[in-house]
Amino acid sequence: MGPAGGRGGSRRGGPPGTTAVLVGVQLLLVLDTTVITSATPVMSRQLHTGVGRVSLAQGVYALAFGGLLLLGGWCADRFGALRALRWALGAFALSGGAVTMVGAVGPVIALRALQGACAALAAPATLALLIDLPPRRARRALGWFAAVGAIGLALGVGLGTPLIAAAGWRAGFTGPAVIALALLIGTVPLGRGRTGGGRRSAGADGRPPVLLSAAVTVLLAAAEAALLARSWWTPLAALAAASPLLLAVLRADAGRTRPVIPPSMTAATTARAGLVLMTAFGGWQAAEVLLVAVRLDSLRAAHPWLAGLPFWLQGAAALLCAPAVQRLCESGRSLGPIMTLSPCAAGLGFIVIGATRSTGPAAACAATVVFGVAAVSASTAATLTTASAADAPPGRIGAVMTSARQLGTSVGTCIVGALLGAPLGSPGRACALAAGAVVIVLGLAASPRDRRA
């Protein structure tokens, strides 16, 4: 079957603006994460606390988001994706607005955890609504959904530090809260069209995926907690200890009559490669943000807008390439080359970052433009191939896709964060070169060998 085109053709699309609202939710979730993450040093100064305490706020967000995604997908299938999305947006807006009433980091951590849970409900519900659109419209909408994921990260990193430095740390919460409220209002017309959002999905499992969600949470917790350790090797050891548990639970799940991960997402070579690419994409994006930030650290303190320029250029490159990438991905013959070449291009970006002892703005801009093209290509190809799984509830498909990316993000952050503290002469440079080699090898190894979707 073609990408994102095998789920039936009897459905009507929602009202005008359906795609814009749903893609807007994805932009909100990506911007919310990256704006806060990139502005951690500024927030620590304004809250008069250590960077570690502020980082903990983002850590609990990542833990709640990644650990609850599979349960969020179950809720979308069980109670209706549109209803779940409205719950999530409403609670997200309320928790963001509540930040205006607190002035200490403790309540911020609690509210950030709540927002992570809301995001875990919103992400699979949004994908379920997109997948439930008619095939041709779904392909286009999923293409923009994937592109926004790549563009939003770059823009969020470029916007975060100067925004919070100018408007205060609360702006990083109240801004997304206002957007969430606007999107919640925008979902009102969606209930008038037959987008499948108010109905329980056919094939929805009555039992929530508690065991697999717990295993994912353990791995994410190990990655997040280990980053707070003083020894550079502790995060790597924590990942090595937690990974076998997740693998064992995945094997047990595959043997169930109705596994959490739909067999159609792993049966064909191209679909498996799409999941692998989605995980790798999350990992290299996290590594890129960390490495570019480290290499431009001295510039960020003096000129935050100039330090954000590479990420603005990355977002622009991804936006300009998105339509062409979508057209190529609609042809099944182009998917294989895109899935192979996009990690190779990302690897080249890492090599550019690590090629010299000090990375200046020009080299960072060149690298991030390459990253932008690689990101939109990988995200679009991986999303379209994995979303085409047949005979599976759309909420579960969305949850598995997003979980794969989030696992890659957390593991990539953990590994790169650990290696940056290693006793090397130039850890940032060595880490960039190593990341480039690993991503290229992974892209070549995970290349699909057939054309089955």
TrEMBL record:
Q: Which domain of life is it from?
A: Bacteria
Q: What is the lineage of its organism?
A: Bacteria, Bacillati, Actinomycetota, Actinomycetes, Actinomycetales
Give the protein name, as stated in the record: Major facilitator superfamily (MFS) profile domain-containing protein
The species this protein was found in:
Actinomyces oris
- Principal localization reads membrane
Subcellular location per the Swiss-Prot or TrEMBL entry? Cell membrane
Single GO molecular-function term?
transmembrane transporter activity
TM region(s), chain numbering: 20-43, 55-75, 87-107, 113-131, 143-165, 171-190, 210-229, 235-252, 273-293, 305-325, 337-355, 361-386, 407-424, 430-447
**What membrane topology does the UniProt entry give?**
Multi-pass membrane protein
A cellular component annotation (GO) from this entry: plasma membrane
